[in-house]
Amino acid sequence: MGRGRAFRALTLAVLFLPVCIRQCYSQAAEDLDHGTKKISGTVINSVTHDPIGRALVYSADERYATFTDGQGHFELSMPDLPQSAEARWMGNGHPVLQVRKPGFLSDRGQQVHADTSPNQKDVTLVLVPEARIVGQVKFPSADAADHAQVELYRREVSDGFAQWAPYAQVRTRADGEYRFAELRAGSYKVFTLEAVERDPLANIPNGPTFGFPPRFYAAARDFVTAETIQVRAGETVAANIAPEHQRYYVVRIPVIRNETGPPTGMTVSVHAQDHRGPGFELGYDPNQNVIRGALPSGSYTIEAASYPPDAVTGVANIVVANGPVNGPPLALTRNPSIEINVHRDLSGADNSRIPTLSAYVTLQSADEFAGERGSDFPYRSQGDAPVLEGVKPGRYWVQVQPTASDMYAASVTSGSKDLLRVPLIVPIGASVPPIEITVRNDTGEIEATIEGEPIEPAGAEPSAVFYSGQMPPGSQPTTGPSVYCVPLANDGGPARWFNGPVNGRHVLQQVPPGDYRILAFDTPQQLEYRNSAAMRAYESKGQVVHVTPGQKAQVRLRAIGSE
To answer: What pTM, to 2 d.p., does this model score?
Structure first.
């Protein structure tokens, strides 16, 4: 699978150059009115720092391209256009170069971006080598199963919180080998999906059914106890898996309808041994209104959920003990709706400027597994609607964005819970106290200067100066230092990032009063700032600042280098 993608990428790269050349000639009449600018440089491996040959370097508008030579060197001639014309295909007024090559990745996929300043001719572009996880699925006998489906999960950080999310799935070859390629450095878990016994001597008509339950690397029976595979850039890790042969028993669980009738589009999750996680599967039969399938002996929690407008959830516990199970009925209860109340704190500075009391509220899953309990999509309040409809049971981080840009949520509570510090708990079959939000507008400002960072010409505009909420990789700057503002534990709230620079200064505006740690990195990061243990590594780094209403705090930082 990975080999096929690499071949297609290489084919596209080979075909891409003549297209760029043709586009370049089509613009000749326009470009001849201006001088040309030659940009030369080298493409290197981020791990070994060796030059990379036959890498495709091209302009952001895809009009100019070339390949590197055997020493990783390239030269690219582009028109020296005036600023007004450059704006079509340049970033921050500078030519933007991109580079790609099969077998190498970057934080934004298979492309690396680099701005070149007006007087800069030599640039260094860095490509990150792909990582791989390979192995073999070894069944007890050659006739046990033809192929196996192998699932890969990756630990992802979103809004400062780490979750395990499905990343890729492959089918083993005839010899049982599998391969996950084009992986970024990170934490992974790998396991086989359930497989049916194919040996005709094992499964006879009207006889017992045998199969292979999910098997997690290495030799684990559930996701929680599975070994985490730490993969570095350019590394290949071997992970062999040996599924167990077990007997399966029929499971049938009736579903109690709610007052609106049988649900549609219902999903069923199966968790073994009181450990949440993927692996086992059962299905819902809407004609019989039952959950049915087969499982090996063990203890299981069955969760069923449907989507709006009839959003309901139910849970049942069963034990399979060497025999079929007609489980206890699973009762579906309507998902609760949560009221939202927004208040104004009149003690802040210039509160007369607050135009409304409305705010957008988003619930982001705080469950360990992304995609569970409907967490594959966040719940959002719509416009001025004071309620979140049909929220599925689970744990959620509450994010608040007031409708006016100069406002912030000074406090967010539900009952006795401070939702700036802890997740909101939504139970099954119970109501949730309203979310109470207090808004203020007495913000401050933080200005950061990074040691050794070049100063931009006067009048230059920053690529980004303010972002509130989570820090998605696709929205962060691709070049230059990235600066982050992380609230300390006693202040809560989301972290934010800001980038410039303008005359060597990074500016973060509308900062709520409180204590923050300011961190600068030479490459974009996904900080797990909601995890106090993960953030201890930065306690001696960056600077801590205290922001008071109306204050402009200034810090000077040294960028933290990539490991």
So the answer is: 0.81
